[in-house]
Design brief:
mainly beta; four-stranded antiparallel beta sheet; 11 strands; 0% helix; 122 residues; seven-stranded mixed beta sheet
Length: 122
């Protein structure tokens, strides 16, 4: 079994913070790059942040400086700390894994979580 289970999505006020979690099972961080994607209503799914198999991180420009991706190997968990949230961050957030060394787009993603919704409003 290879599973990705997200949690932590919620309704949050503009400027607020939220931490998403993704518990993985059935694969090793050593062989799969992992990351977070999001899909807003009517828009394409986009990569928010990723962690390569070696631990290198990457972020989409719109969240750089506000979001932080991290992993806890012992807990088999991927996190996305989101600060200074904006209405534009409203979307369903998905945890994803790829056999590639790095994760840079939705192309090549091998496994998806079911998603957790995040809504940012006043």
């Amino acid at each position: 079994q290879l599973q990705l289970v997200e949690s932590g999505g919620a309704l949050v006020q503009i400027g607020g913070s939220l931490r998403l979690s993704c518990v993985k099972s059935g694969f090793s961080f050593d062989y799969y790059a992992i990351g977070w994607f999001r899909q807003a209503s009517g828009k394409q799914r986009e990569l928010v942040a990723g962690i390569a198999t070696g631990g290198r991180t990457n972020y989409v420009d719109s969240v750089k400086g506000r979001f932080t991706i991290s992993r806890d190997i012992a807990k088999n968990t991927l996190y996305l700390q989101m600060n200074s949230l904006k209405p534009e961050d409203t979307a369903v957030y998905y945890c994803a894994a790829t056999k590639l060394i790095t994760i840079q787009s939705l192309y090549g993603v091998d496994y998806w979580g079911k998603g957790t919704p995040v809504t940012v409003s006043s």
